Structures are given as structure tokens and as C-alpha cells.
């Protein structure tokens, strides 16, 4: 199980030609789950995503703190 968090100016979700949801500027999370992934792994990934912090630097670019 893996996730990618990306800052977006706007994003939408489409099923076929139909748009099902959309956001303006914000964070987009792309999550991949495979057969055999357990609920415990999903819970752990979800907790990490909720705890993710993002900051703006002096130029206004968003950064995240380095991992330890």
C-alpha cells in the first residue's frame, strides 16, 4: 500500500465522461491498495497521511519537514 500527496491548484475525479467531484487549491492524495493489503496497513497509512505537515518557505513554496 502506498500514497502520494500532491499540492494542486485544482483537481477533479471523473468516471468516464462524468465528473463526480472537484476541489480548488489544496492537497490531492493518490492511494494505491492491492489485493492482500490488510486493514492494519491501511490504518497505518491513513494515520501517517493525517499527520503529514506542510509549510511555506520564504518564497511561498510549500515544503514538508525532513523525515527522521
Question: Roughly how many Å apart are the termini?
Answer: 21 Å
How many beta-strand runs?
6
Overall pLDDT? 87
Alpha plus pi helix count: 1
| β-sheet strand percentage | 35-45%
What kind of sheet is the major sheet?
2 strands, antiparallel
Radius of gyration: 15 Å
Q: Which strand order do you get reading across the main beta sheet? A: 1-4
What class, by secondary structure content? Answer: alpha+beta
- Which quaternary structure do these chains form? single chain
Question: What letter string, H or E per element, gives the SSE order?
Answer: EEEEHEE
Helix content: 10-25%
Unreliable residue stretches: none
Tally of domains: 1
Overall spatial form: flat
In words, what does this structure look like?
The chain is α+β, with helices and mostly antiparallel strands and 68 residues long. It has one domain (2-60). The protein contains 1 helix and 6 strands; from the N terminus they run E-E-E-E-H-E-E. It has one helix at 39-51, and strands spanning 2-8, 11-15, 18-23, 26-32, 55-56, 62-63. The protein has a two-stranded antiparallel sheet. A hairpin with a 2-residue loop joins strand 2 (11-15) and strand 3. It is flat. The two termini are 21 Å apart. The mean pLDDT is 87.
